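Consider this one:
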Amino acid sequence: MIPVLIGVAALMAALLLVLVVRSFGGGTRRNELLESQMSDLRRELQTLATAQAKSSGEVAAIGQTVNQRLDSVSKSLADNVTAAANIAAQSQNSMQGELRSTREQIIAIQKQLGEVQQAGRELSSATQTLQSILGGAKTRGSLGEITLEGLLQDALPAAHYVTQFRFGTGEIADAVIYLRDGKLLAVDSKFPLEAFRRIASEGEEARRAFAAAVKFHADSIARKYILPEEDTLDVALMFVPSESVYYELVMTADSKGEPLDLYCRNKRVFPVSPNTLYAQLCVISMGLRGMQLEENARRLYASLAGVQKQFDTFGDVFERLGNHLKNAQASYAEADKRLEKTQNTFENLLSANAADGPLENPQGLLPLTDPEEERETKKSAQGA
């Protein structure tokens, strides 16, 4: 607003200067006209001055209002800047904490990945070692025997099984379980691993070879370890120490379409895996405990019969003792009566002697008692 007023004043001054210049060149009429114009100009200047003064007051008020608003805005801006700085600082601290936590988690994950890699290398080494162990039939047999012995140790008492049992025929079973009445259950470990491994690569041809190997093992176990003349059961167990091989055995049929497990059962040979063998051993263990309880009950009954006989003998002795006690009580009562009579007689004698005066023969004998009383006293003594 102020620059506009200054511009108007400058314009008026310029017009005044033009009029003054023109006045020097004109006549009287022009002077009058000029004076009239000057008067109008002065009025307009006064009007402008008044408006300028009024505008100056409004400008001052507006400036004060603007200053107040600027102060308020500056304070609010400063507060907001401070709050923003605090928020930024908190965000920075939180971000630093998250970064630190993330860094620690990354370090832990890297450590775990290192452990997993190490475990993978160890597992690979163990797999190679296991493959080398299972590479030969002898080592596979040893592994099966060790697994079988561990299952027997976990499920049965040591007195109810034996490993490497030799029959009278000279054949040696991996294990024999002792059952009731001296019966034996033979368990032999068979592990057709090579034929099983070839199934994945060679297909049906390897499966036929696998079936032939299983049937050969079943025939061998039935021939060697089912010996009723040596008190064995008419069945035997073929232990397959691999669940995958056992599953393949159960699911495979021979070239004639007969399932392998049915062929084995027809030979009275039952294939078992570690899980199924352990379940059967637990059942056998429960049966053995039941037989032991039965034997203990039989022995307890025999012991109770002996105790009953002793009670009968004790009753006879106790009855005789009661009779003796009754006789002793009767004798005691009779003796007590005699003692009382004797005391009364003695007191009577003392009182009679005291009334008659001193005896002439103080050392003389007392009068004898009644002979009838003496006989009763002797009878009482003999009855006691």
